[in-house]
Amino acid sequence: MGKWSSKALATIFVTLAIAMNSITPAVAHSGLKVGFYHHSCPEVETIVYNSMVQSYKANHTVAPGVLRMAFHDCFVRGCDASVLLEGPNTERTALFNRGLHGFEAVDAAKRAVESACPGIVSAADILQFAARDSVVLAGGYGWRVPAGRRDGKVSLAEEATQMNLPAPNATVSQLIRMFGAKGLSASEMVVLSGAHTIGRAPCVTFDDRVQTSPVDPTLAPNFAASLKRQCPYPGIGSTSVNMDSTTRRFDSQYYKDIIRGRGLLTSDQGLLYDSRTKRDVHANKGSAFYRNFAQAMVAMSRIEVLTGRSGEIRRQVGEVNKY
Ligand code: HEM
Fold first, then answer.
1. Where does ligand 1 bind, in terms of residues with CB under 6 Å?
2. What is the mean pLDDT of each run of 10 residues along the chain (323 residues)?
3. What's the rounded Cα separation, in Å, for the pair 71 and 57?
4. Domains observed in the chain
5. At which residues is there a site annotated Transition state stabilizer (predicted)?
6. How far does the centroid of ligand 1 lie from the alpha carbon of residue 115, in Å?
C-alpha cells in the first residue's frame, strides 16, 4: 500500500467526513445561507425589522399573524411565499387559512425593501425575516435566518388542507407523521407548537372539547368553565380566546399551562399525554424553550425551498411577476 498505511487512510477519511458534515448544514442542506444578501442588499434585515416595529406598534396582533403565516407557508409547497399569493383558489382562500392575518405587515416590509433594493429579495425570505422579528418583538430570542429562497409561482387552495396542515383536533400520532413528512422531528414539533404562546384561536377550533357532556376530561375543570363562558355560542360567531395565559408575551407559559390542564387545542393538550412528547413538554417549560424555538424555526424555514434559478424574485408580495 506504499507509504499510506490503512490506518492513516482511515484517519484521513474520518477527518474529511467530519469536516464535510460540519459544512453541509449551512449550505448544501438546502442551498440557503446566512448573510445571503450581504452584498446585494446589505440593509435588508434592518429594513424588514424597522417595518415590523411600525406594524407591531400599530397592531400587536401582527406578531402571531405573521408567525403563523410562516408556518402555513412552509408546510404547503415549502417556504416559497405561495401563501402570500392572491386570487381565486389560492392557498389564502382555503378554510385552514381564512384566519390568517398580518399580510399588510409583510406587504409593507416588502415595499420598503423594494425601494432600497428593487428585484433582489424574495417575498419568501422577507416572510421568514418578519416571522423572526415577530418573535423578537413579542419577547422571544432572535435567530440568524439562512436566506436565498426564491418565490414560487403556484398556489392552490386544495393543497392548504389537512393533507399538509394539521387540524386543531389532530392526535399526537398525526402530528408526528405530518411534521415527519416535512423532515421535522417529534421534538421539533413540540417546540414549534410553542408558537401558541402568542395569539388567539376561535371557539370553533376547540368546541369539541368543551361543548360536550362530559367535557374533555384532560381539561382542568375551572379552565373548561372559563372557556364555556367565553364561547357562549358553539359553532358560530367570531369569538376568539387567548392561546395561553400570557398571550401577548412570547414565553414558555404555553407548556406550563399544558401541564396544568390548560392547553387550548386538542393538539396542544395531547402533547402531555403521549410518551413520545411528554418529556419535551417538560423540557420546554423553562428558559431552554427560547433557544429550542429559534433552532426549530431555522429547521422549518428550510423545508422544500426553491433556490438558484428555480422560481422567481416576486416584485409584489401577492402577485406572480407579469413579465
Ligand atoms: C402542531 C400543530 C398545530 C396545530 C394543530 C395548529 C392549529 C392552530 C389553530 C387551529 C389556530 C387558531 C387560528 C385560527 O383558526 O384563526 C392556531 C393559531 C396559531 N398558530 Fe398554530 N397550529 C399548529 C402549529 C403551529 C406552528 C408550528 C406555528 C408556528 C411556528 C403556529 C403558530 C400559530 C400562531 C402564532 C397562532 C395564533 C394566530 C393568531 O393569533 O392569529 N402553529 N394554530
1. 64-65, 67-68, 71, 99, 101, 166-168, 170, 175, 189, 192-193, 195-196, 198-202, 205, 243, 265, 267
2. 38 34 41 97 98 98 98 98 98 97 98 98 98 98 98 98 97 98 98 98 95 94 96 82 97 98 98 98 98 98 97 98 89
3. 23
4. 44-159 (1.10.520.10), 172-300 (1.10.420.10)
5. 68
6. 32
Count the neighbouring beta carbons within 10 Å of the beta carbon of residue 185: 14
- For 265, other C-beta atoms within 10 Å of its C-beta total 20
What is the Cα–Cα distance from 98 to 106, expressed in whole angstroms? Answer: 17
Give SS3 for 151.
Answer: strand
Q: Are 280 and 175 contacting, i.e. CB atoms less than 8 angstroms apart?
A: no
Distance between CA atoms of residues 261 and 25, nearest Å: 38
Nearest to 199 by CA among 147, 240, 142: 240
